[in-house]
Design a protein that fits this description.
It is a single chain. The longest helix has 20 residues. The strands form four sheets. The chain has a nine-stranded mixed β-sheet with strand order 3-2-1-4-5-7-6-8-9. Strands 11-20-17-18-14 form a five-stranded mixed β-sheet. The model has no long low-confidence stretch (mean pLDDT about 90). Helix 3 crosses helix 4, helix 4 packs parallel to helix 5 and helix 15 packs antiparallel against helix 16. The protein is elongated. It is built from 16 helices and 21 strands. The chain is α/β, with parallel strands linked by helices and about 500 residues long.
Length: about 500
């Protein structure tokens, strides 16, 4: 098919999408979790498809919007010589359906010009609740290229949780539900291409979903973007999630997974590309099925080196927990009068700085926790711990920031840690100062920070990921701590030199 023949139809389809976006407020789009794809991204997603063998290609578009993804997919099928295409489209927003019909009619006209046949049916209903794969007359699909909606729901009482309970348990986000039900609708060998947040690749919430998805299909390709805020055609909104494109094939196996990286402009078609063995991307060492994504060859090198470590964080004998004080639930016990009687220091994220935890009571954000009849569930025995920030901003250079809290920092029996920090100790014992400094040093090293970035694409540091991370032995931790304990100031270069030398790794990116 002549590429020039697509230009005018695409201009018309873009105009339809633009007009629809202008007619909808940002708030109304947020309610439905709508983020719209442009043709640069949608054409690229469609281009990942391999020509199906079916005589009539069946396309499923769940959350179709104004139809750009369906159009790109149909056009690409036509370019591969598929002359008969039938599309089934689900769109809950009745206001989008008029534009969707116009888009599909444009596609239909182009197929006619090329002596092909394009037919479609639009279902203006909730795709997850409808569960088309359970209908008696259901026919499976060859292809689905989707940009599912994004919003959270209650895993306990949402109808969405009940609707997918036969597929997986856990995750309270609608985009994963869309991916799961779409996969259930695919025939053997069916191809699914998605653009979604990266968050499903790690985290306890998504464990059941990952198990379902990676059991039902083979992950063949991951495409990551260098800039997260330019992927969608939502000029008046900010996309904080890191988004990725994934390509899955149902009921198949793969020995390798391709990882591509680009901006989301025309360079997307000339992305940097590397192939990696499946075991490097999908962690086989535990039941979490974490999907690690090295964003460059040097990141892959760090991931490979981390895999040579002999144990895991938990296997080495350490524990990690989230701080017990949830401030908005314990406001009555929190005071800015840090010298008040019957109080203990409460550590917040600003008190966690590289290597050394600092709470002196005169910082404007310092607070104390009032001891009370319920303080046992909020406070803990004062001791030596490593504190690890749970959150970082998307612009911070580091994801991992750890500091040492020594028992002798405060003359009190109890201490408080807020739930925006993690605290680390040794199972069945107490950390020595040397071992604590060793742990904090490892977490503050470039090697561990870059390793963690392969595991997690979001700015939250979850205890689940830390527990299963490959980790140095306790002897190595103590050796590092002994050397670092002599340093008076935090210097990244010196810390990296010590960690790299003891672990025998190279951590440059």
């Amino acid at each position: 098919m002549n590429r020039q023949a697509l230009i005018d139809p695409k201009d018309d389809i873009i105009s339809l999408q633009s007009a629809f976006l202008r007619s909808k407020s940002l708030e109304s789009r947020k309610i439905l979790g709508q983020f719209f794809t442009g043709f640069v991204v949608s054409d690229y997603m469609a281009s990942l498809i391999v020509k199906p063998k079916s005589k009539t290609i069946r396309i499923l578009d769940a959350g179709a919007g104004t139809g750009i993804l369906a159009a790109s997919t149909a056009f690409y099928c036509l370019s591969m010589g598929c002359k008969a295409v039938h599309a089934v489209l689900y769109e809950l927003d009745s206001e989008a359906v008029a534009s969707l019909k116009q888009t599909l009619n444009i596609v239909q006209c182009l197929f006619c010009e090329q002596l092909g046949t394009f037919t479609y049916e639009i279902c203006c209903e909730d795709f997850i609740i409808a569960r088309p794969d359970k209908e008696k007359t259901f026919q499976p699909f060859d292809i689905s290229v989707i940009n599912p909606p994004y919003f959270k729901y209650s895993a306990k009482d949402s109808p969405y949780a009940r609707a997918v309970a036969d597929l997986y348990h856990g995750d309270p986000n609608i985009y994963a539900s869309f991916m799961a039900v779409v996969m259930a609708c695919m025939k053997a060998g069916g191809q699914m291409v998605t653009i979604t947040p990266r968050s499903f690749t790690n985290g306890l919430y998504f464990k059941g979903f990952r198990e379902y998805l990676l059991t039902e299909s083979a992950l063949r390709l991951i495409h990551i973007f260098k800039h997260r805020d330019k992927v969608f055609n939502n000029d008046d909104s900010t996309v904080l999630q890191e988004n990725i494109i994934c390509y899955f094939v149902k009921g198949s196996n793969a020995d390798t997974i391709t990882v591509r990286s680009s901006d989301c402009d025309a360079s997307i078609n000339n992305a940097e590309e590397k192939q990696y063995p499946v075991h490097l991307i999908v962690d086989p060492s535990n039941d979490q099925r974490l999907i690690r994504i090295p964003e460059s060859a040097s990141a892959a090198s760090i991931l490979k080196q981390a895999e040579t470590l002999k144990t895991t964080f938990e296997g080495a004998g350490y524990f990690i927990s989230t701080g017990r004080v949830v401030e908005h639930r314990a406001r009555q016990y929190i005071t800015e009068d840090t010298s008040a009687e019957n109080t203990v220091p409460l550590y917040r994220p600003h008190n966690v700085t590289p290597l050394t935890a600092t709470w002196i009571g005169n910082h404007k954000k310092d607070v104390a926790f009032r001891l009370n009849e319920e303080h046992d569930k909020h406070t803990m025995k004062n001791g030596t711990y490593v504190l690890l920030k749970r959150f970082s901003s998307k612009d911070e250079k580091r994801r991992l920031v750890a500091s040492v809290h020594l028992a002798n920092m405060h003359d009190c029996e109890l201490i408080g840690f807020g739930n925006k920090t993690n605290y680390i100790g040794v199972l069945g014992g107490e950390l020595s100062n040397i071992e604590a400094y060793g742990l904090a040093t490892i977490f503050n090293s470039s090697f561990m920070d870059n390793y963690f970035r392969c595991i997690s694409g979001n700015t939250q540091v979850n205890a689940t990921e830390i527990r299963v991370m490959k980790f140095p032995s306790r002897d190595q931790v103590k050796k590092i701590g002994d050397q670092v304990h002599k340093l008076k100031l935090f210097e990244t270069a010196k810390i990296d030199s010590i960690v790299n030398r003891v672990l025998g790794v190279v951590a440059s990116i």
